[in-house]
Amino acid sequence: MNLIKAGNIGEASPARWSDAIGSAVIRAIGFFCFWLILTRGDPGDVGPGLIAVAAATWASLKLLPAEQWGFRPIRFAGFVLHFLRQSIVAGADVALRALHPRLPLQPGFVTYRAQQPPGRKRNTFCAIMSLMPGTLPCGTSNDGSLAIHCLDVTQPVVEQLSMEETLCMGALGGARSDA
Amino acid sequence: MSLVMDILTICAVSAGALFFLAGTVGLLRFPDTLTRLHALTKVDNLGLGLIVLGLLPQTSSVLFAVKLVFVWLLVQLSGAVVTQLIAGAVRHHGADG
Fold this sequence. Notes:
- The structure holds 2 protein chains of 2 kinds.
- By secondary structure, chain A is mainly alpha-helical.
- Helix content of chain A is 53%, strand content 9%.
- In chain A, helix 3 (73-99) packs antiparallel against helix 5 (157-172).
- Chain A is globular and about 60 Å long.
- In chain A, 24% of the residues are buried.
- Chain B has one domain.
- Chain B has helices spanning 2-29, 33-55, 62-93.
- Classes of the chains: A mainly alpha, B mainly alpha.
């Protein structure tokens, strides 16, 4: 376990049992709500639903152990709006290129050195980036930087990625990560 | 009020269908696997988002509306993860590997 310097958040103590139980309860409630939405809350189905909730909670804690994300709700809401706007820009951009008679593409790879070290936060950032305009993360290079496939390498992709990463991490907060 | 909602539905669903069409055109016209992935994820996600947005005013209950939004979120999530896996595989092994 290598502890990553949290930088902006100065708390790097390992996750405690109370944290783990708290996050198990929160996740179980979330999964139960999700199950209610999917099945429209038929009382006859509560039994299987509860079993599914328990299994999902167990799997989620196994795959994604409890950690502090320093989540900031207001900044997160702002980021969601930004994300929706960028999704529209992304879709419209690719749609226009696809329908343009001359097919204006300059595809290629750009190397981006992420501010975040490898781990869950960087994976989250990559997942969001794959839905943003013009960029598609394709894994990590040998030197640890991210290989990003772009539809148009003449665009200022690295500057844009750096700005997006700052915004994204501002919304998700500094994690104490053991990844 | 329901007329306004119906107009919203018609506009949003039509726009969504147009984006799906553009995404399919991109899938056919773009030159290689990676550029086609751009067309599939970004354009189709926006198309589906617009169709969900257009269908929201027609839903009979809040629960059903939330379910529609979850469908869109799940597609976004699977798109974000699967495209990266395919893109990584193509970069390492080539399009045929």
